[in-house]
Amino acid sequence: MSDQGIPFHRHIISLICMAIISGGLVFYFQKPSLASYSTSQSSDELEKIHQLYTKIQNEYYQEVNSDLLIEGALKGMTDSLADPYTSYLNQEAAASFTTSLSGEFEGIGATLQLVDDLPEVAQSPVKNSPAEKSGLRVHDQILQVDGRITKGLPLSEIVSFIRGEKGTSVQLQIKRADEIFDVAVVRDVIPVYSVYGQLASENSTIGQIEIVNFSQNTALELKEMIEELRKEGATSWLIDLRQNPGGYLDQVEKMASMFLEDGEKIVQFSLKNQILGEVVASQKLDQGFKVQEPVVVLVDGGSASASEIFAAALKESANVPIVGTTTYGKGTVQSVSSFQDQSELKLTVQKWLTPSGNWLHETGLEPDIVIDFPEYAYLIPLSKKQTLKLNDELAEISTLNQFLQALGYLTTVENSYSLVTKQAVEQFQMDNQLEVTGEVDQETASLIEIRLSQHLKKTDPMRQKALETLTEMIQ
């Protein structure tokens, strides 16, 4: 599994008020009620909890909020399992969790989880969110929000600081590895779509489809996108699952079935080393809608759970080539159940296995063709708080020079702000209608990153290799 961040062209983050695990989910669509699970059914086991609750209520030196005690006990039980994919979601978090896979919300666009009492960017971005240019990545920790320290605060409170009206800005202090820097993001309405598609510019017979998650209607969205692109002339498919964190199990089963012959395995399920059952492609799943044209699937280290089920099913049951880097490696299934007050329990209930019986947990799916972005794509953003200038020897000067080299303004990379760097900056400013100072201020730094993002999107070696592989298949 790659521990690198999201490349610049994928620097889109979505803010959803929920404690969702890093690496995504596979979970059941239905939400059975937990109301029938009465404490009276196990009164002996829970007697100690009742005693502690009563003791605190009666003898604690300050007034106690009983709801907070109960919420804390519920969260404590799920936390004690030491399973990052099992959690208790209060009413607000549960509502936002549902919204993340349907509808729309206002924010900057980043799914968060609490790790060691700090909010952390937990999953891949909502496409076309306002934070696309901010440079945030999975596993970034948010130390401050508009000057407020976040450590130790409830996730819902942190999210309330970050969310706000469309058009307003929020300042985030980010920690990435050993680096700390600030990012300003303008809030907007974030639509939650899951499928995007177009004909490849290099070959108008190739339909390029990006699936960003597996939400409630993703199977239908995929079917409609394929039908639309077929009308435009697509006769082969590049399915991009990069940075797709997963989602509903029923959706990935329907989608994988579209690409397989009836009877071919999609996924198996296991509990305590015993196979519980399997799902195979069928008309019941795909309603008879099949994709029989050539297909290549694109994945990376952010492709998790349902993405891995989809890619493994096509790879092992249909010999579809997989291109990219090793996937995340999340091989468990969660159920989502609701309490009467609309809070929810997300609980790991079983393992999932590939059609060949492989458990990819913590190992991931190895692509048939391994290819990654260049190293500069994973460097941290340039500082926007200070101006970089001639003779500076700050650590990030090397990053600046690598960016300038990638954009064609330098042939070699140095660690200092030399005269050569100054001249390169001047040329960049001239080419982009900026004031020519030879110094990198906030405006110049931001535009360098925008141009680099555009360059990476245009050159994208992973996508190019996938297109090359697909072109060879259809010749």
UniProtKB/TrEMBL annotation:
SMART domains: PDZ, TSPc. The keyword Transmembrane applies. Keywords: Hydrolase, Membrane, Protease, Serine protease, Transmembrane, Transmembrane helix. InterPro entries: ClpP/crotonase-like_dom_sf, CtpA/B_N, PDZ, PDZ_sf, Peptidase_S41A, Peptidoglycan-bd-like, PGBD-like_sf, PGBDSf. Pfam families: CtpB_N-like, PDZ, Peptidase_S41, PG_binding_1. Residues 94-163 form the PDZ domain. Belongs to the peptidase S41A family. This is S41 family peptidase. The lineage of its organism: Bacteria, Bacillati, Bacillota, Bacilli, Lactobacillales.
